[in-house]
Write a structure and sequence with these properties.
Distance between the termini: 58 Å
Strand order of the largest sheet: 12-13-10-20-17-18-19
Helix content: 25-40%
Shape: globular
Largest sheet: 7 strands, mixed
Number of strands: 29
Number of helices: 18
């Protein structure tokens, strides 16, 4: 389907609007619209649905008179299958036949509520919302049938895509009831009864991707596939150092390249960078090849600005020095100083994780057209409303005049929730008066990322005669994500400190958690698992070190640290809990203990005979409200080559809506974690990022990834929690702890490529 055909269909579903549209109450987030549609709608197969009434009880679902159920997917699809999972929940509550469901991707619009597809909260935040949407439609269809039959609605029920009168057996299909249902008032929330868990036909059983056929046949539309007639292609030479500006530019040779039409200077951002374009010189051409070749011919002299002094090696030393000094108190209990002063049995460790790039398989790309005062953009974005905000700001137009069409994403990992690349396309289209597709190269992607923060962590414990901590100090130092919004930000903000740091769960009487200052010299952003990566690595590696120092089994020692089941009291502590209520999602150490006990059993911990140079490592971590424990088996050759034969992961994510997809997320997390641990590292000299492509920023190849990953899902009555990110934090320390068992070499610094694991080292 062409981009233009997508426009008309999405507007139909997005607005459900036109003459006679009725906005009803505030009973449902993010809003309810009801209309009876008469008119022409062109569907994918070319059919014209003239004069057919369409039943649209809310912004997420509509029923056509032919029985087709349309469900709007308002979250972005990047391989998590969320474009299937949330519509599946709605279809279940509606009792819709999945074979008769069509899914439409929402444009950016506040009426859908939050559309920022990151933070592992899509199901958590919208499970109840879409259930209510489906149930509301079901109730109205039942009411329409009851009116037609002249019977009480209580005598009717739904079966698959049908309303049935229980006593007489009469049946009416949803399509037959659409017109009548569209004329009914939308019931209030307390008038809608949700299905019982035992009645679910899809939830908990799962569904393959709605897009599977198109994905495997090459028909799926990604950002790079978007096309408009007459569009230009643009490649942008960005300032090599963050905040740099152009001194001089010579474009003469670039304009001589066949296909190049012009070059355009993009103004540098005004600090802080947020999601503004970085600035630079854009080369516009009739093909990506011509744009790339023309860009190579540019001659630019840069003023690199103050960040030219940034050297990652020196910065590392500064972070480590800061981590050794007393810092800002984040959480405390007991008397740590007295406990440390009363014993000579102490142990300390220092840990380091470098900057990390996202490196999604599909680099940044966006197509935008500015026309008649409005912008239409097609982009693989995780946050279409952020697209609306930055484009409207850059062009001085209303957010409502920015229409963002969301394509499939070839990976995201958090990078594509930051729409600087979409703003670039919109700015260029505004300047040239034609559609412009901005295409980033892999080098652009790696060198101009929003990097996951580099971090130095200092750990210290006072130990009793059995090697158990009686006092615990931990200090973390990293340039904060908030620095992209506030030039003065140097301390971690509560949401990111809460990621595996503020919520250290061990049963220790004396505890002190601190955070030190660090100034950012690159754009810092969230990457899959975010601060949990470095915090989980430090806490779980230090725990393992303490176990071995005490001569204890690491798994048993970890359970002892976790202690008996209890709910952590965060009174007096700034702990945002991933934006969720602590009443609904309390921090329960019993759940962390349970997944740890289960992974010990499932992995055969202590029962398996391992060969030469082999070892098992264990780690447990709560992130995004999900509890995960992982055991990694590793083999290290005499030359230091690493092989990962097996991974066992136990997950308590509360209610699991789509089990097979959830398992896939944790299988993928093991591969992602392997890449981070083995080779993930971004460095800089004179402010310029040294890595450029997969030769210098490699990701795990198939022979380096885990050979077998077993994922076990805990049956739980708790509400649904995140599944996209929680698999990464425990995997990395479990891998490093296994390497210690296999080689006797302790990993305190990532990536592993910095450590010679061979026998001769």
């Amino acid at each position: 389907m062409s981009a233009i055909e997508n426009v008309s269909r999405r507007w139909f579903l997005k607005g459900l609007a036109g003459a006679g549209a009725l906005v009803l109450g505030a009973h449902y987030a993010p809003g309810i619209l009801l209309r009876s549609e008469s008119g022409n709608m062109r569907t994918d197969d070319g059919r014209t649905d003239a004069d057919n009434a369409t039943f649209n009880p809310n912004v997420f679902v509509g029923v056509e008179t032919n029985g087709t159920v349309w469900i709007v997917a308002h979250r972005s699809e990047m391989g998590t299958v969320i474009r299937t999972t949330l519509p599946m929940v709605l279809a279940d509550e509606l009792d819709a036949d999945w074979k008769r469901v069509k899914i439409d991707q929402a444009i950016g619009d506040p009426q859908y509520g939050d559309q920022n597809t990151d933070g592992s909260h899509s199901v958590r935040s919208f499970f109840d919302v879409v259930r209510l949407s489906g149930a509301t439609a079901r109730v109205m269809l039942i009411q329409a049938a009851a009116q037609r039959w002249g019977v009480p609605a209580s005598e009717c029920r739904t079966e698959l895509h049908l309303v049935v009168h229980s006593s007489s057996g009469r049946r009416l299909g949803y399509g037959e009831l659409a017109t009548a249902a569209s004329k009914l008032p939308v019931p209030k929330k307390d008038e809608v009864q949700l299905k019982s868990k035992s009645a679910w036909r899809y939830v908990g059983k799962g569904m393959t991707s709605y897009d599977l056929s198109e994905l495997v046949t090459g028909k799926a539309v990604y950002g790079m596939d978007a096309h408009l007639d007459g569009m230009l292609f643009a490649s942008i030479e960005h300032p090599p150092v963050l905040g740099g500006k152009i001194k001089t530019v010579d474009n003469a040779d670039a304009l001589k390249v066949s296909g190049v039409s012009q070059t355009i200077v993009i103004d540098p951002f005004k600090p802080p960078p947020a999601f503004q374009p970085l600035g630079g010189v854009a080369v516009l051409a009739n093909s990506t090849w011509a744009a790339f070749q023309g860009r190579k011919k540019l001659k630019i002299e840069w003023d690199n600005g103050p960040n030219e002094t940034y050297d990652s090696d020196q910065y590392k030393k500064e972070l480590q020095e800061t981590a050794r000094k007393p810092a800002k108190l984040i959480r405390g209990q007991g008397d740590v100083d007295q406990a440390f002063g009363s014993t000579a049995n102490t142990f300390e460790g220092e840990y380091y994780v470098p900057l990390l790039a996202h490196a999604p398989m599909e680099p940044m790309v966006a197509l935008a057209e500015f026309k008649d005062g409005k912008v239409h953009a097609w982009a693989p974005t995780q946050n279409p409303q952020a697209v609306q905000a930055i484009v409207s700001s850059e062009l001085g137009i209303s957010k409502a005049d920015v229409i963002c069409h969301v394509t499939l994403l070839g990976g995201g990992f958090g990078r594509k929730s930051k729409p600087d690349y979409v703003a670039e396309a919109a700015v260029l289209s505004h300047k040239v008066g034609r559609p412009v597709k901005v295409v980033w190269t892999r080098e652009d992607d790696i060198q101009f990322d929003y990097y996951n923060a580099v971090a130095a962590m200092y750990m210290k414990a006072a130990l009793d005669s059995n090697g158990k901590p009686v006092a615990w100090l931990q200090r973390s130092v990293f340039p904060p994500i908030t620095s992209i919004f506030d030039v003065n930000a140097v301390y971690g903000d509560p949401p990111h400190l809460a990621q595996g740091w503020t919520d250290m769960p061990y049963d220790i009487p004396n505890l002190r958690i601190e955070n030190g200052p660090a100034k950012a010299h690159v754009r810092i952003g969230w990457l899959r698992s975010v601060a949990n990566i470095y915090h989980g690595f430090a806490v779980q590696t230090f725990s393992d070190e303490l176990a071995h120092r005490a001569g204890r089994d690491p798994a048993e020692y970890l359970l002892e640290l976790i202690g008996p089941p209890r709910t952590i009291d965060f009174k007096g502590v700034d702990y945002p809990n991933y934006g969720a209520s602590l009443e609904t999602y309390p921090w329960e150490t019993g759940r962390l203990r349970r997944v740890t006990e289960m992974v010990i059993e499932k992995s055969g911990w202590g029962k398996r005979k391992l060969g030469k140079g082999a070892g098992l490592g264990i780690a447990a971590h709560r992130s995004f409200l999900t509890y995960v424990a992982t055991v990694v088996e590793v083999e290290v050759s005499d030359d230091g080559d690493i092989r990962i034969p097996r991974v066992d992961t136990v997950v308590d994510a509360g209610l699991v809506v789509n089990p097979e997809v959830t398992k896939a997320q944790f299988e993928g997390a093991a591969v992602f974690g392997t890449s981070v641990a083995r080779s993930g590292e971004i460095t800089a000299k004179k402010g310029v990022i040294e890595q450029t492509n997969f030769d210098s920023y490699p990701v795990a190849r198939i022979n380096e990834a885990p050979y077998q990953t077993n994922v076990y899902l805990v049956e739980s009555d708790a509400p649904p929690a995140g599944v996209g990110e929680p698999g990464v934090p425990p995997f990395i320390p479990a891998l490093c702890n296994a390497i210690y068992v296999a080689t006797g070499k302790r990993i305190r610094e990532l990536p592993l490529s910095r450590t010679n694991l061979g026998k001769q080292s």
